[in-house]
Amino acid sequence: MFEVKATQHVLAVNNVDESERCFLDKLGFSVRFRVDGWSFLSLGSFHIMLGHCPDEISAEATNEHSYFAYVNCVGIDDIYGDYRKRGVDIFQTISNKPWGLREFGVVTPDGHRIMFGEDIGKSFARGL
């Protein structure tokens, strides 16, 4: 039977040290390991591979395709409050959406965007 145990996203970043600091200090990730030019980070089962690509156009500069992950979670209000205290760059404030999710979005120094969402129930999605 097929089962997804985790996701791992590969991000090209202009400055791996700066990006790593953001993921560690602000977003609460931890270091799994590092190898030359790469930093492997995790937030639970959400894994990131940061690759040092100093000549790559940043996600922010492309003005498109900067979204790379949608994290379905529980305790969204807790992590949102923690991120606000840490000074995370939040581009979409937390709110309940008509599709039955409570969502917010953050952006990294390179302009990569991550959405977080928590299921708030089918009755909300139907307007009941």
TrEMBL record:
Gene3D superfamilies: 2,3-Dihydroxybiphenyl 1,2-Dioxygenase, domain 1. SUPFAM superfamilies: Glyoxalase/Bleomycin resistance protein/Dihydroxybiphenyl dioxygenase. Residues 5-119 form the VOC domain. InterPro entries: Glyas_Bleomycin-R_OHBP_Dase, Glyas_Fos-R_dOase_dom, VOC_core. This is Glyoxalase/bleomycin resistance family protein, putative. It comes from Alcanivorax borkumensis (strain ATCC 700651 / DSM 11573 / NCIMB 13689 / SK2).
